[in-house]
Specification:
Shape: elongated
Number of helices: 6
Structural class: alpha+beta
Order of helices and strands: HEEEEHHHHEH
Distance between the termini: 14 Å
Largest sheet: 5 strands, antiparallel
Strand order of the largest sheet: 4-3-2-1-5
Helix content: 55-70%
Strand content: 15-25%
Number of strands: 5
Radius of gyration: 18 Å
Length: about 170
């Protein structure tokens, strides 16, 4: 049994793309001496909340391309660079989804490959890139980091790649 009916595959591809953009690609939490830090990383930006202290120079909001330069660790700076690459890669399926939403038949006629499969491949690549960045945060960031977005992207990618398009 297919998860998505063939006639709804295009709509599902657009929805899946937008869901990947809305899901945080990682959530981190750590505590040090009554100070709690929660970091929510989305594709375009990061929110960081610090409870129990005020730090000079702290920036609770950073765009993804600023994260690498704000980190003291080379590993975390690399994670920020990979996250920026994931954002740049994500802009491809996002742009395609906007066009596909408005003109599904024209996009299907113009692309040499099935657009649903193209979405599946692109979201899979975004998932792998955010998984790599999350892995660097898991190994170098104090506390616990949960990679939410990579699993969302990879599951949706798998569903798009296995849709029966008969």
């Amino acid at each position: 049994m297919a998860w998505v009916k063939s006639e709804y595959a295009g709509e599902f591809a657009v929805l899946a793309t937008w869901l990947v953009g809305l899901a945080p690609w990682s959530v981190s939490l750590f505590e040090v001496q009554r100070v709690t830090v929660v970091a929510l990383r989305f594709l375009p930006f990061r929110f960081q909340f610090i409870f129990g202290a005020t730090l000079t120079g702290e920036r609770p909001f950073l765009w993804t391309w600023q994260i690498g330069g704000f980190q003291e660790s080379a590993t975390l700076a690399l994670a920020g660079t990979i996250a920026t690459a994931a954002l740049a890669l994500y802009l491809l399926p996002l742009g395609l989804s906007l066009v596909y939403y408005r003109a599904e038949d024209r996009v299907e006629a113009a692309l040499p490959a099935d657009p649903v499969r193209v979405f599946g491949v692109l979201l899979g690549l975004v998932g792998l890139a955010t998984l790599a960045a999350s892995g660097l945060f898991v190994t170098s960031f104090p506390g616990v980091t949960v990679p939410v977005g990579p699993f969302v992207a990879l599951v949706l990618s798998g569903l798009l790649l296995t849709v029966d398009r008969a």
